[in-house]
Write a structure and sequence with these properties.
Helix content: over 70%
Shape: globular
Order of helices and strands: HHHHHH
Structural class: mainly alpha
Strand content: under 5%
Number of strands: 0
Radius of gyration: 15 Å
Distance between the termini: 19 Å
Length: 116
């Protein structure tokens, strides 16, 4: 049986290493900006990750949704909080978000089954 969380993380790690090995200053700065944007500030990490989840769903980026779901899980976000956040994203993004909502639920379930 496949492990979608492991597959996602293995691919992401491998490709990030490949991309960063090109030593492109612009790409490195974008990666750094993304990392720093989600550090604690006026908003805590949990809130920022939930905001990132909404934006990712509305923009229909499955990789981003998975990333934010995993980080939310690590930050102790509850299933109820994730589901309410995804409901808001679906409301804002419209019915075109529903296929991404399905994959988000599937990924969250995989996270929960690994480490509830």
């Amino acid at each position: 049986m496949s492990d979608p969380v492991k597959e996602f993380n293995d691919y992401r790690t491998r490709m990030n290493e490949r991309i960063l090995s090109d030593d492109n200053k612009i790409i490195k700065r974008i990666f750094n900006l993304d990392t720093n944007a989600y550090m604690p500030g006026a908003l805590d990490v949990k809130t920022k990750e939930l905001l990132g989840l909404v934006a990712s769903a509305v923009l229909r980026c499955d990789d981003c949704i998975s990333y934010h779901l995993e980080t939310c899980h690590k930050e102790g976000v509850s299933a109820a909080e994730v589901k309410e956040t995804l409901a808001i994203a679906t409301l804002v993004g419209g019915t075109i978000v529903i296929p991404h909502l399905r994959r988000a639920y599937e990924f969250w379930d995989a996270l929960e089954s690994k480490n509830p």
